[in-house]
Design goal:
The chain has ten helices and 15 strands. It is an alpha/beta fold. The model has no long low-confidence stretch (mean pLDDT 96). It binds NADP nicotinamide-adenine-dinucleotide phosphate. Its EC number is 1.1.1.292.
Amino acid sequence: MSDILDEVRFGVIGTGRITRRLVADIQSTDGAKVTAIASRTSERARWYADQYGIPNGIEGYAKMLARDDVDAVYISLPPSMHGEWSIASANAKKHVLCEKPLTVSLAESEAIDQACSENGVRWLDATGWLHHERSETFARWIQEEKFGKLGHISASVSFYQPFQSGDHRLDPALGGGCVLDLGWYAGGFARFAAGQLPEAVFAEQVVIDGAAQKLTALLWFANNLTATLSCGYDTATRKWFEVAGSESSLICDDFTRPWNDRPARCWIHDAAGSVEQHSFEGHQERRMIRKLIGTEPLAALHRQALDTQQIIEAMQTSIEQKTKVTL
Ligand SMILES: NC(=O)c1ccc[n+]([C@@H]2O[C@H](COP(=O)([O-])OP(=O)(O)OC[C@H]3O[C@@H](n4cnc5c(N)ncnc54)[C@H](OP(=O)(O)O)[C@@H]3O)[C@@H](O)[C@H]2O)c1
């Protein structure tokens, strides 16, 4: 249970596609509610507030941070704006839930961590899959060496979408492109499964219409553990991974978010061809919100986010310099 306040009052910044889902998740989490939403325009703020049962629709993001009836801010803006508004929220003594990717650079992400720490507020990036009960089981299994010695991790995250003009995913100035957008999931999973940063990274991208639309990367970890990542906007939805060990492999086809109307699932394949299926209940976003407003230490989740940002930065450097990058 939260002991920050009896009920944590969220203000939302931005009125995009994902906002709808997170507003409903905050509204349905015990101990949390949404009291205000801010947009660049008053019309959109009011429309959104009326549509989703939020008491206050506000024009301008800064006004949100001055409100006394807001304890925490959910930031749902294009990635290039995450750093500025997360730091401003922390300086206004509001807890921060910032959409993924956390920011567009490691330095900016570290600045959020520092601003939150200096202001005594909590922060999380809204990477929902990390908070599913299933992911905690994955971590335990890996820790217990259930699959033997790990040799390889692969993660593939994609969706096929003809973008509408103006989509921030196609605008590098707004932090667009699949390296940040989808590499956040695949690179983050590799770091999660390996439990550490890679020692080296090599990455390539395909740029179409000015933005990275396909990413292929190879990561080298200690003890001969390797990982391959495949991300893009060029193939149908994939959100899967394989963690291959000396005794068996863990396989999951929905790690970023369970398929609609199906329980979260995974399989363990052994060397003799037998397969064990596991299913999990639970709601990853509500658990994430509970963690933000609760009291449990968040340092390991912060490390996961900062390491993910560092992996992405290494991939970007590798792409630019067309070379293997050592971390
Ligand atoms: N966790 C997840 O599962 C998940 C899923 C999808 C997206 N995301 C992340 O959520 C964030 C938002 O993505 P989205 O797809 O919801 O974005 P979106 O629909 O384009 O919405 C972004 C919002 O940001 C505001 N904004 C401010 N300046 C802007 C600018 N120059 N261009 C565009 N929008 C601007 C707009 O709100 P106002 O006009 O009202 O101010 C807009 O509605 C991204 O970081 C994305 O990676 C996360």
